[in-house]
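Example 9 (inverse folding). The structure is encoded as follows.
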């Protein structure tokens, strides 16, 4: 319990409904943690969800649109996406992120593992 590993599922398409990000998705009852890779030129279309979400950039350069704001994050920076605020992202180069998300009851995509 407590030790988190992202082994496997690197090719998992996280949210096929609006995103080209790939990687493992781990969930507990209250939160979701994912390692997300966007290849250069890919991203996520405009969308919103009830969960709050933060992208923490490990590698690369990601352009973010959150509501009326537009900015770029690089390694060591993050983008916070409040509940029900429209947002989208675009990778200017290969980009690796950690996504932290609060958990809602209804999920539109599957987890690849559990947080426990």
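The amino acid assigned to each position is listed next.
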């Amino acid at each position: 319990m407590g030790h988190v590993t992202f082994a496997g599922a690197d090719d998992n398409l996280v949210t096929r409904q609006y995103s080209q990000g790939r990687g493992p998705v781990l969930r507990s009852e209250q939160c979701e943690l994912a390692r997300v890779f966007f290849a250069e030129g890919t991203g996520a279309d405009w969308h919103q969800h009830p969960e709050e979400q933060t992208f923490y950039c490990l590698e690369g350069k990601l352009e973010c649109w959150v509501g009326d704001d537009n900015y770029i994050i690089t390694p060591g920076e993050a983008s916070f996406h409040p509940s029900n605020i429209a947002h989208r992202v675009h990778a200017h180069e290969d980009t690796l992120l950690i996504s932290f998300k609060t958990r809602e009851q209804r999920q539109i995509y599957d987890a690849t593992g559990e947080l426990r």
